[in-house]
Amino acid sequence: DAKTTQPPSMDCAEGRAANLPCNHSTISGNEYVYWYRQIHSQGPQYIIHGLKNNETNEMASLIITEDRKSSTLILPHATLRDTAVYYCIVSARAGANNLFFGTGTRLTVIP
Amino acid sequence: GAVVSQHPSRVICKSGTSVKIECRSLDFQATTMFWYRQFPKQSLMLMATSNEGSKATYEQGVEKDKFLINHASLTLSTLTVTSAHPEDSSFYICSAQGQNNYGYTFGSGTRLTVV
Hints:
The structure holds two protein chains of two kinds.
Chain A: E1 9-13, E2 18-23, E3 32-38, E4 45-50, E5 55-56, E6 61-64, E7 70-75, E8 84-91, E9 105-110
Parallel strand pairs in A: 1-9
Antiparallel strand pairs in A: 2-7, 3-4, 3-8, 5-6, 6-7, 8-9
Chain B: E1 4-7, E2 10-13, E3 19-25, E4 32-38, E5 45-51, E6 57-58, E7 67-73, E8 76-81, E9 90-97, E10 104-106, E11 110-114
Parallel strand pairs in B: 2-11
Antiparallel strand pairs in B: 1-3, 3-8, 4-5, 4-9, 5-6, 7-8, 9-10, 9-11
């Protein structure tokens, strides 16, 4: 699996957009970008994934650069409940590979 | 949506005893499940891949005789920590592929404390 690089921590004001970057410069053509988050003492929660195109769902938006070497997860209106560790993972089609977690970004939403 | 149930949520056991952790896919069949371990302030580390009807595949450095995995049905995988020691105290998490074939669903985790 390709390696990802994320900042260790970020703060965001409540109600503002949280933009979490991820570098994956060695990503292969068949690898997706997945984002999960882990709230303290819980199992990781799936947020969103994408291959080439930008994606949006009810939780977040995912912006992938044209060269696919980096991506940004956007939480449009952060709430206190969004405080968590966010993991960016690149992996080929689900079911064919395991998910290997890096160190992630600890996002703290500040009131 | 896909739900993975993990039990128990926390367990305390004495050194030398064994502990079994269950991971169930509630509304879908999972031919493959994954077991992770997470130490405080660290990321999840994959321990093994559990395959229904066959032997589990262990990651390098994980003792297969200590961490017994059984995946006897399409909805249940168990992890047994045998002869537990305090250094086995950790947060154990299972996951399975969701119905949509692209996301993994994780259990809520099991906090194991060995005293």
